[in-house]
Amino acid sequence: MKRKVLTVTAAAFVGLSGVWLSSGNIAYANGDIDKKISDLNEKSSNVNKNINEGKEEIKSLQEQQKKTEAEMKRLDEKIGETNEKIRNRESEISETKKEIEKLKKDIEEVKERIEKRNELLKDRAVALQESGGSVDYMQVLLGSQSFGDFISRVSAVSTIVEADRELLIQHEQDKKELQTKETAVQTKLESLEKALKDLETLSADLEKQVDEKDKLIATLQSQEQSVNDEIVGLEEEAALLADQKKAAEGEKAAWEQEQREKAKAAAEAKARAEAEAKASQSQPAAKSAPSAAPAVTSGSFMRPANGPVTSRYGYREKFGRMHYGIDIGKRGSSVPIVSVADGTVIRAYYSSSFGNVVFVRHNVNGQTWVSVYAHLESYNVSSGQSIGKGQQLGYMGNTGRSFGAHLHFELHKGDWQGSSSAVNPENYINF
Fold this sequence. Notes:
alpha+beta, two-stranded antiparallel sheet
């Protein structure tokens, strides 16, 4: 979606100078006004299209966000399962270590039994242990004193040999069995330790993915906020376009009325008299306020409020941006804000940036001007209302993006086109 708010805004107002209803002469024919209204309709249509595209983009971002959140939930569950497996593996490893310790004790017990048997064999068959058995056993048999002694010795030797043989067989079986068990348990332990490392690696990978998803969520939320902010700006722009269209339609009606009356000079005099009457009616209210309104002065423009200038037109080093107006600080309570010249209220509304703000269009000596009064505590005028020079618009306040009560006042030469049409008010008004 291609949104160029300033470009659209500027385009919406280019060429509109001189087509608004004011106390000056109406310079264009009915067909010219119709063309301007048609242009405004087209620009409004473009802005509304951008708003709709923005809303569709937000919807798409929200769908992506839902998918990402679902993926995060899946990963969280997966991490939980992995951690459970890790705990199970750790428990198995602990049990296996206990088994190994038990086997080691069994091995020591078997070794102790074998050692005791060896001691018995040494006492009874030293010759067998030293020479391998054949000669020594023969000497034992030949050394018999009688046949009965021989039989006894044969029985004894047989018993010893059989005992030795069984002992050695049991010894070898025990060693093999213990070695087999220890090897099996050690293999199992190594396998479990490897599995534990694998699971820990998997858990780390999953946590990394969750971090990435968190960043994605933050990015989507940031994109959604950006589009939301842009839509707010576009919606304000659309509303302002609509109000200026109403002003153009009002001008057309006035032109047709003047054509019917055939008395342009009389109409101008009547309009001037009505403006002066309204201005005179507004003065008592201003005097009754705790802080007085500025006196109406001669010249094209007058001050919009009493009070010190706290910030001038120009680049602000502190904030790193341009200041397109004059700030007048609050002095006293309920400081009145007045129109700097005769004109027509284009729009009076609440803006997210300007707070309570009033836009007024003027025609001074054939030149179109727009004055802007921002951060008002309140306003008492409405769109399309004709007002006189010095007529009260509202009271100084601290609404919108404002730090401390003050009036932010802008003056635009020609129809309002955003910052591009702003001029330094001090070049035209004595502050």
